[in-house]
Design a protein that fits this description.
Blueprint lengths: L1 H24 L10 E12 L3 E12 L5 E12 L2 E8 L3 E3 L3 E12 H13 L3 E12 L5 E10 L6 H4 L10
Antiparallel strand pairs: 1-2, 2-6, 3-4, 3-5, 3-7, 7-8
Length: 173
């Protein structure tokens, strides 16, 4: 009698597990490609002594033949290989099929991170490497991770004060 109960219990567990897996995949279409996320713009929002906030405009491109409802996202922005800002957003947006949409998110950084970046930028050439990574949270599809890298050109003359050579000392007799 114990063997029958164990077999029945194992069968019920397998059936339950199978239904759970099928239910989780019901909204997911096989062959979905990951959307591409790129930085379009960065604007200062507000600042206090210890915290600075920026608005990041992100372009989300959907290469799929179905729309993607985005419920929110999380992200991290690195500059020159070091963490600069992080953020989350719970603003829903629908990215049309074979289309794109702009998602504006708030990025937050701290005074030490900002000062470190200013020191690095003063030593830099004319470009800054960045990396944006995070996760798009979607309703039916579970979510998509993204990781994008690139370079941003600095305005001409940026950081020259830190690179100027000082004038040679002069002596007066």
């Amino acid at each position: 009698m114990k063997q029958i109960s164990r077999r029945r219990m194992a069968g019920l567990l397998c059936a339950g597990l199978g239904l759970t897996v099928l239910g989780g995949c019901a909204g997911f279409q096989f062959g979905m490609q990951k959307p591409e996320v790129t930085v379009v713009d960065i604007r200062p929002l507000d600042a206090t002594l210890l915290e600075q906030r920026f608005v990041l405009s992100l372009r989300v491109t959907n290469p799929n033949s179905v729309e993607i409802p985005i419920e929110g996202l999380t992200f991290r922005l690195d500059l020159s290989g070091q963490q600069f800002a992080t953020g989350v957003s719970n603003r829903p947006v629908v990215i049309p099929r074979l289309g794109e949409g702009i998602v504006e998110v708030t990025a937050t950084t701290s005074l030490p991170r900002l000062l470190r970046q200013f020191r690095e930028l003063a030593k830099m050439r004319d470009k800054v490497e960045y990396r944006l990574r995070g996760r798009l949270v979607t309703g039916n599809f579970g979510g998509f991770d993204f990781d994008q890298t690139g370079e941003v050109g600095l305005p001409k003359g940026f950081g020259e004060a830190g690179r100027r050579e000082s004038a040679p000392p002069t002596e007066r007799f």
